[in-house]
Structure formats: C-alpha cells, structure tokens
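SEQUENCE-TO-STRUCTURE ENTRY
===========================

Subject: a protein chain together with a token-level encoding of how that chain folds.

Sequence line: the amino acid chain in single-letter code, read from start to end.

Question of interest: how does this chain fold, as expressed in backbone structure tokens?
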Amino acid sequence: MSEMSVNPSDVEDPHLEAAAEWFVSLAEEGGAEALRRWQLWHDAAPAHQQAWAKVERLQSLLAGAPLQAAHVLRVPVREAQKRERRSRRQLMACIGVAFTTGMGWALLPAAPERAPIRWLASARGERRLVTLPDGGLAWLGSNTRVGLAYDGQRRDIYLAQGVLQLTTGSDARQRPLRIVSRDGVVRPLGTRLTISQFAAHTVLTVQQHAAQVQAPGGTMATVRAGQRVRFASTGCGRVQQATVADDAWTRGLLMALDMPLPEFAAQFALYSGQAVEVAPALASRRVSGTYQIDAPERSLATLAEVLDLRAERSASGWRLRPR
C-alpha cells in the first residue's frame, strides 16, 4: 500500500496555510460571496491551486480512510466546533498530525488516483437543486456544502455541512455510490433519501427504497422507505418511523408535533440558515405547528405569540427568551 508523498516542510508552507484558512472560512461562512472570494484567490496563482489540492486531498483521504483513523483526527476539530470557530493553526495541526505521525498508513489510496472533488454550495436561506453527473438529483438545503468525486471506479459525495436530499441516478457503469458525512458513511440502495447534519448528530431519512449507514464505531443500520435513524461518532441509534415532516424543508416548511423547543430551534437554524438560541428557562417548552423557513422573522414572531415568549434579534440570528 503506497502512502501520500508529502514533504514535512509543506506544513509550514504559507500557501498551504492560506488554503487551510480558506477551507475553514468556507465551512464557517458559506454563501455565494465567500465562494466568490475563494475562487478569486484560487485562480490567482498555480501555487494557490496546488495548496488547495493538498488540503482538499487530505479531506477526501480522511473521509475514505479507516473509520477509526478518521475518528481520531476529527477530535480536535469537534472540540474547536464547540467554540464555534476553528483557527488556521488548529486545522494546520490536524494536517501536521496526518502527515508527520503514524497516521500515514491511513492516507490511502494505492492506485488509481482519486478523482478531484468538485464542491457545490448554497447560501444561507437558499435551497438549490443540482443535477449530478450520473443523472441523479441533489437538493441542497440552506448553507450546505457538498463535494462530488466521481471517477471510473466509484461515486463519492461528501456532505461537509448542512442538509442534502438525494435522488440517485441510474449509473450505466454501476459504480458504487456512497455519501461520506462527518458522522458516518451512507450507501444508498437505489433510493431517495435525506441527510441532515446537526451540531452533535446526523439524521438519515429514507423516502424510497433503502440505505445502509455505518458509523465510525463500526455499528451499522439498514433504513428502509418510511424510516429514519440518528447516528453520530458513538454509533447508530434505533431505526424509527419517519414522517412527512422529515423532508418538509424541501417545500420551505418546518413541521413540528409536540417537539421540544431546543430541537425545534436546531431544525429551524439548519433549514432556514438563521441561528436560534433558546434560553435555558424555555427548554421544557413544546412546539406544534407548521412554520415557513423562508420567512423566519414572521415564523418566529408567530412562535413567540403562541408560546408567550420573546423572539429578539441577536448578533448571530435570533434569541428566544421568557417574557
């Protein structure tokens, strides 16, 4: 098995540092303007393109590496995410760990070269429909970032952040298809499915046919049409019955039935692109109803009136507080 050839001095390369910083910025900011600025930087010099390819290749290799190895290298990133921002040095530290420690064996592949990743993104508050190279369809929810790596042997889709609904295409070459997310790998079995990546877990819902998911711990679950499962770094939860609410976001709606307010806030934030903070005193409140994610101010005003609470703007979005 061959390893990725990397000069240790690359870790101090200023172009590589800039590429790592751009990777962090795109993950944190998202949106069309951030992508436009990144594209200008990327196209400005061959050295920028080479540095970006190294960072991008690292990400794809970690996603395709043995799950235990990927889990080890995700730990510092997860800790940084809890603080809501990852510094350039933290990401560079991950690169240094991958390139200069015993993790080299995990940075596959021997041959052939993996396909370059083509990144697609949606802005906050935007939903975007994309036709895939194999004829499949992908709905990107708000502030979503997805990478496509199709080559002669396989079809890989990387969900870096956000929510994705995939209707698989009929591939003439019958290449295996997988969706690599932070919390596990999903293998569609000829299907339409939705993957929603929250702060601490990911939810897979299958609308048609079936899919298999494998979490980093090695646990697996088969999810059939009309079912859903929650999975995270610790493993897969119990497969449950899905509802029409699971893909209501594709129609611009968030549907809740006796849902805890913090869970409602997390879903509203994911699907609308508007951060929603819930005061601890409101944690026991429950939400029922249908809310428009395309009209967040009006929806949160309605929620505040129904639950007799206050919805206030904050620096990052909205804050729900007792009256």
Summary: The longest strand covers residues 155-167. The chain has three domains: 8-106, 118-243, 252-322. The two ends are 63 Å apart (CA to CA).
